[in-house]
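Guanylate cyclase domain-containing protein
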Amino acid sequence: MQTHVNAGWSKIPSWLTWYIDYGTEGLSGPERRQRRTLKTLSAFIPMSGLSYASLYLTVDPAGLWPVALAVSLFCLFVIWPMIAARDELTAWLFGAALAVGVQALLVWLLGPGSGLHLYFLGIPAIAIVCFGTRRIGLLIGLAAICAVALTLSETMLTGPAAFISVDEWLLRFLQVSAFIVVTGFVTFGVYVGFLHADRAERALEVEYARSEDLLYSLLPREIAGRLKAEPHATIADSLPDVAIVFADIAEFTPLAAQLDPQQVVGLLNTVFTKFDALADSHQMEKIKTIGDAYMVAAGMPNSVVDPAHRAAAMALDMLEVAQAADIPLPEGFEIRVGLHVGPVVAGVIGNRKLFYDVWGETVNTASRMESYSAPGRILLTPAARAMLGDDFTFEPRGEIEVKGIGILETWWLVGRA
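Tokens:
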């Protein structure tokens, strides 16, 4: 859209674009549009006055007063944008007084038969188009003045001023042109106003949808809904049965040293995007990534009947991703995985860069399982092994000394039964 606008704008003569853009420096959005509209009208209105004056000369070649009036108006309207560039309120009052005064003068000179009093209908609309809706008090006052002027013109005046000689056909022409111009201008003004409102509303809808998608990508849908309903509420849940899976890339530091930054980020993005898809397919909740580590959970924010089974199935699929031939992974690429099941506390902390996090001994134990695991293998705790039962196959690893926990019997998860 912007390209098309600029292309059309480039076809306008440079002197006219300079005039229209004068005084718009530093303005943007509606203010810039309104100022450009003011510049355009400040040129169009006196030019139409000159055309009417020229037409009058064809009827009365000796009557030079319309030409003198039109030239005077041209000078006044040209300086209108210059005033607006320095003080908008002064320009508002100047333009309103100029429009009402000139229109009243013309109606008095040519009488209501010319239809020129109908232009009083367009003056408030011009004020809105050129200056917006911010000054509602002034707009109401201007509309009231125009309504009074229109009423007096229709009821008090009977014809042109005594010293004016105007043919009937010219009055009819002016009347018809007034009907057309006022109708067209009001229609155009309403159309432009609703056009910009529709565009703004559609843009807001698009941005709202984008912000919703971003929010739901950062937080579970249920948690996001709770935060939207109660923005200042503390989100803290105690969940009794959650399966936590930790995975990280084996020997990632020396591997990353062999790659440039773009390759490192590309590698992590490729692998973790695959893991995200697995989390969705297994209906698990991605918690976060920390460097080359990936954390995902089953049974949160809502409890499920089989958290350990979902976690085990995803862990096995994660190993398959790391070994897949269709993914461009470096030679020797492998991941370590750890899995544990138990109670956790989950919630949202702070009010910036929000994310749904989880804490507790279950999380620490799952992290330890990943640390004590081996490349290409999944290490389980007794709790996870008991919940999986005979639905998967295992290899005993035996007892190991786990930092912060002590002696722990562990198993390797081998596959599905």
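The CA atoms of residues 379 and 412 lie 5 Å apart.
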